[in-house]
TrEMBL record:
Name of the protein in its database record: DUF2878 domain-containing protein
Transmembrane segments: 20-45, 52-74, 86-103, 110-132, 138-161
Record key words, sorted: Membrane, Transmembrane, Transmembrane helix
Keyword Membrane carried by entry: yes
Highest rank taxon of the organism: Bacteria
Keyword ATP-binding assigned: no
Amino acid sequence: MLLGLTWKLWINLMGFNLIWALSIFIGNDALLWIAVLLLLHFVFVAKSWIELPIVLVVALVGYSVDYILTIAGVFRFEQAQGITPVWLFFLWIGFCSTLRYSLHFFSEKYRIASIAGAIAGCVTYFSAAHFGAVELPLAPVISAAILAGVWALLFPALLWISHTMSQYLSKHICL
């Protein structure tokens, strides 16, 4: 155990950070490697039949928010074939695979999650913009305000959906 996290939680956190780096620096060319990392998560996680639908539903919610922000002009993806690049959805799956594991600390601590989401959301998107994975065409203060507001609501919402689905599926799926 290191800093209160088991080695499995550290692997989960490091796996997501690797997915983030592959997505941001390599983009769609890294999809095979990202898919392998996600597959490993679902192979080694306990009760993957519960984890998979939770991660996919929550990732779809998060991706939808990014899609709306892209259409609204908050984000611009130059290398995208459509509105958003494929790697963005895979990145959302990777992020959502941390909600019940390395980010479980925030589960049911929605005020703390809101503050953490506002800060980490801004830092993450500005980092991605710095490395050229996304453009933030609005003034930096406007982008920061929008991202902080969105993530102050989105992160606790994703945690709540994940927690609620986990409880429901654990009670109703007997495998």
